[in-house]
Specification:
With 467 residues, this protein is α+β, with helices and mostly antiparallel strands. The chain has 14 helices and 14 strands.
Length: 467
């Protein structure tokens, strides 16, 4: 989340602001700025109570020797297990830290007990609004290492879901960066076991998915298979290679993931009704938003449920109408029901819906500026890719629709591909006069069947569908 989509100094938070900055904070004090690698930069700051992000950034860049050409690649974040906020250059971190509990009550569902003990740290990491096209031009080894450290953490934690061929390759590259290239098999296996597989492969891959069948296989057997996969991939790496080349290879694979560089939010979506009683419930999801689009991911299964570029969606944010209701981010996109083109609405329940809506709006504005600049031949760094003609981003549900409908999504096994058919969505058609809710077809009543049903094997096809 970034400060550009939500001002923190609103009247509500100002009233609850816990006192003014103490006079003692005007003198020089030490400030720790953490990197993703858990190392920290120690700064001696004058007037820590009023120093702004822009000044802190200048000091950190000097300490880390970040080239001026790459200074926009990074931003300051306030991070804790409960909330992550990217700050604006004008923000004053100390004052936001004093408002932290207010922000947690406003944007999380954490308990009062958890909120009372939560503390943010100041982190220096990738800027959500930094275009990938510019990142590909970075040559500085130190900057590439910072980006690699963050991408690796997101891979290992499952924030960046990826397919086996990707995480094995990424794991092998991490081995090469940690241990060097050219190790023999026995030495590499020894290093992997000393550092543990979870240092190179995503945690959910190492632990397995659980369940009856996975329990039949010993953990040692599974780990041995993963070690051999890493070993085989490591052997395929050319040797020797400079760290810069290995960083580039790692980041290049991450760039192929559509949600690389996203800011992440937590939420829930409705599960499709199942069983005779039509019980549903909710599923936890992670929502990634970047200059590319919006991606809804299954927190447990580590795969994409819905991925949309800004030219493919409309959105809105609704506030709770009564006590007990939820904030909702609405995503609208094109779909199909029984051969009929329909509009689909996905509801994402989250106290961070306001932040998500604001970030989407800001990204759409950045892209519009970039597209306009590209059209006139001026500098358009904000644009990562161009919106197709006739498909301008829309800022609210029910707004202007694209003149031509997009091709339907193809159902695939890759974790990166959308699984729209698994979502519980609201479908409706707009006939130009009124919006009509599409009534789902019902099967024959269970009690009206006169003869036992016959069954036939379902034939798997590669049919195209988006619903």
């Amino acid at each position: 989340m970034d400060g550009d989509e939500c001002e923190f100094s609103d009247p509500e938070l100002s009233r609850s602001h816990r006192g003014s900055v103490a006079s003692s904070l005007s003198r020089a004090q030490d400030v720790l700025v953490y990197l993703v690698s858990d190392s920290a930069v120690q700064l001696c700051v004058e007037g820590v109570g009023t120093v702004c992000v822009q000044e802190l950034a200048r000091m950190v860049r000097q300490t880390l020797q970040v080239p001026d050409s790459d200074q926009d690649a990074f931003a300051f974040w306030l991070c804790s297990p409960l909330l992550e906020l990217q700050l604006k250059p004008k923000h004053q971190p100390y004052k936001l830290c004093r408002q932290w509990q207010d922000l947690l009550y406003r944007f999380t569902d954490a308990s009062s007990e958890d909120i009372s003990v939560d503390e943010p740290c100041l982190q220096y990491k990738r800027n959500v609004f930094y275009p990938r096209t510019k990142e590909l031009q970075i040559d500085d080894e130190g900057v590439l290492r910072f980006l690699y450290d963050e991408a690796r953490l997101n891979i290992l934690e499952g924030r960046y879901p990826c397919d086996p061929e990707h995480w094995v390759r990424l794991g092998a590259l991490s081995c090469a960066l940690d241990c060097g290239t050219g190790l023999d098999d026995q030495k590499l296996i020894t290093v992997i076991r000393e550092k543990k597989l979870s240092s190179f492969l995503p945690a959910h891959v190492v632990l397995g998915s659980g369940g009856f069948f996975s329990s039949l296989r010993s953990r040692g057997s599974r780990h041995a298979e993963l070690e051999q996969s890493l070993l085989k991939e490591y052997r395929s790496l050319s040797s020797p290679q400079e760290p810069t080349a290995l960083f580039r290879q790692y980041l290049s694979i991450c760039h192929s993931l559509p949600y690389y560089g996203c800011a992440f939010f937590v939420g829930e979506i409705d599960k499709p009704a199942q069983g005779i009683l039509h019980r549903g419930g909710r599923k936890s999801v992670s929502v990634g938003i970047s200059l590319e689009g919006v991606y809804v991911m299954d927190t447990k299964e580590k795969h994409v449920l819905l991925g949309l570029r800004f030219s493919e969606l409309s959105w809105d944010h609704s506030y709770p109408e009564t006590e007990g209701d939820s904030h909702i981010l609405w995503l609208e996109f094109d779909g199909e029901e029984d051969g009929t083109h329909v509009n689909k609405l996905l509801k994402i329940y989250s106290k961070q819906a306001e932040l998500m809506s604001g970030l989407i709006e800001f990204c759409v504005e950045l892209r519009s500026v970039g597209d306009a600049a590209a059209a006139t031949g001026t500098d358009g760094d904000a644009a990562v890719s161009h919106t197709p003609a006739g498909q301008s981003p829309v800022g609210q549900v029910g707004g202007e629709r694209p003149q031509e409908r997009r091709g339907r999504l193809r159902r695939q096994s890759s974790v990166v591909c959308s699984r729209v058919h698994t979502l519980s969505t609201i479908s409706y058609v707009d006939d130009g006069k009124e919006i009509k809710r599409l009534k789902p077809k019902r099967a024959a009543s269970f009690f009206s069947r006169q003869a036992p049903p016959t069954y036939s094997t379902v034939q798997v096809t590669d049919s195209l569908e988006q619903g």
